[in-house]
Design brief:
By secondary structure, the protein is mostly helical. The protein is built from 1 helix and 3 strands.
Length: 85
């Protein structure tokens, strides 16, 4: 005897029950996807105003030739970069 599977209900479902449950799950998924989209938009808006510093004021810029902010991921350029000598 295997352990009972939590996905399978104790009583068999009718097709009408399955379809009703599917519709409820689809509505719940759509609501959660909207919430995720809103959270991602809010996060992007928040990070668009990044100062590229840590909370204590130290620089959060990392990298060698290409400098990137550790918090927002944007490429940070030093003042005017020389493209020729």
């Amino acid at each position: 005897m295997g352990k009972p599977n939590s996905v399978q209900p104790a009583l068999p479902l009718t097709q009408a029950d399955r379809l009703a449950r599917k519709e409820r799950l689809d509505r719940d998924m759509a609501m959660l996807e909207l919430q995720i989209r809103q959270l991602r938009d809010e996060r992007a808006s928040l990070l668009s105003r990044c100062d590229h510093t840590d909370a204590n004021g130290r620089s959060a810029v990392v990298g060698g030739r290409t400098k990137v902010c550790a918090h927002c991921g944007h490429v940070v350029t030093a003042h005017a970069e020389k493209l020729w000598q």
